[in-house]
Design goal:
The protein is built from 7 helices and no strands. The protein has about 140 residues and is an all-alpha fold. Helix 2 packs across helix 3 and helix 6 runs antiparallel to helix 7. The chain starts with a helix and ends in a 15-residue tail after the last helix.
C-alpha cells in the first residue's frame, strides 16, 4: 500500500523506536523539520534523502515510492514459485496444442508435455491451497 512520504517517515521512525528529536539529530536537522516532514507540510532536502533512507533502514526506492517494509523474502519466494509453476503449465499446454496442430508432435510427446503442465499445477495447488469454498482458476483469466 502506498503511503505519503510523511506517513512513511513517521511509521518507520516509530517502528525503530526513535523520537522525532533522535531522528533529527541523526539527520542534522531540527525536530521541527522532522515534524513538518511527517505532517507532509514540507519535504526533506533532496541531498538528505539517501541519509534519511539509511537511518530508517529503507532503500531509497522504498522511501520515494512510499512503500516501506517490503514483503518478507519467504512470501516473495512463494509468490514467485506460484507464478513460475503456472507459467510452465501454460507453456506446456500451448506448446502441445500448437505443435499438435502443426503435426510436429507425436501424441506420446504431447501427453508428456501436458503431464508436465498438470504436475506443475498440482504442485502449485499443494503449495497454495484455495480458501474453503473458493474456486481455483487455472485459466489465467480473473
Amino acid at each position: 500500500m502506498k503511503k505519503t512520504l510523511g506517513a512513511l517517515i513517521a511509521q518507520t521512525r516509530k517502528e525503530k523506536g526513535m523520537t522525532q528529536l533522535e531522528l533529527a539529530e541523526k539527520m542534522g536537522v531540527t525536530d521541527k523539520a522532522v515534524s513538518k516532514w511527517e505532517r507532509d507540510l514540507s519535504c526533506p532536502d533532496i541531498q538528505s534523502l539517501p541519509v534519511l533512507a539509511e537511518v530508517l533502514g529503507l532503500s531509497l526506492e522504498e522511501l520515494m515510492q512510499g512503500r516501506g517494509g517490503s514483503r518478507p523474502a519467504e512470501e516473495q519466494t512463494g509468490t514467485l514459485m506460484a507464478t513460475i509453476l503456472r507459467a510452465v503449465a501454460l507453456a506446456m499446454g500451448v506448446a502441445a496444442a500448437v505443435l499438435s496442430v502443426l503435426d510436429a508432435l507425436a501424441p506420446k510427446d504431447a501427453a508428456a508435455l501436458l503431464g508436465l503442465g498438470l504436475a506443475c499445477l498440482a504442485l502449485d495447488a499443494l503449495q497454495n491451497p484455495a480458501a474453503k469454498g473458493e474456486r481455483r482458476n487455472f485459466s489465467g483469466r480473473g
